[in-house]
Amino acid sequence: MRAKPWARFWACAVGAVLVTTTMTGTASASTAAVEHPVTWSFVNGFFADPLGALDPATPPVGSNVWTCKPTAAHPEPVILLHGLGGNQRLNFPALSPLLANNGYCVYSLTYGNQSWLPTVGGLGSMRTSSARVKALVDKVLTSTGAEKVNVVAHSEGTTVASYALYRDLAE
Prior knowledge:
By secondary structure, this protein is mostly helical. Helices cover 36% and strands 7% of the residues.
């Protein structure tokens, strides 16, 4: 069975491999047009902007810049997936700007948030969450013109990404 184009996002092992291999250098003018501030502490990030941190629709700094085009040095966009009880802004206040500052196109979303606890995600059905991830992958591929994406996921994000890939291959 031939894999659908979006399913090739599994190019990078889900986890911190990308983080440890790309965060060794500093951004240059050729790789990052804007130097994004990096929030190293969840506590500092939360108290600096509690409304933003609790808004599941607010992407982390450096993420979801839809005009970003991958470079030859970093041809694959990066999608960040949060963990259970987190959201895109809460889980990636350091990683998103670090990747963007190093020349990557970075994207994220909050999946699985519920009306009874809208500020955090990961609480919805796996089917619905994986469909949202698949839709984001499709949108990123279309927007950037890339052939595949890298996924960096935390906790439940790894399961959602795996489920999305499995569902797509099974269809």
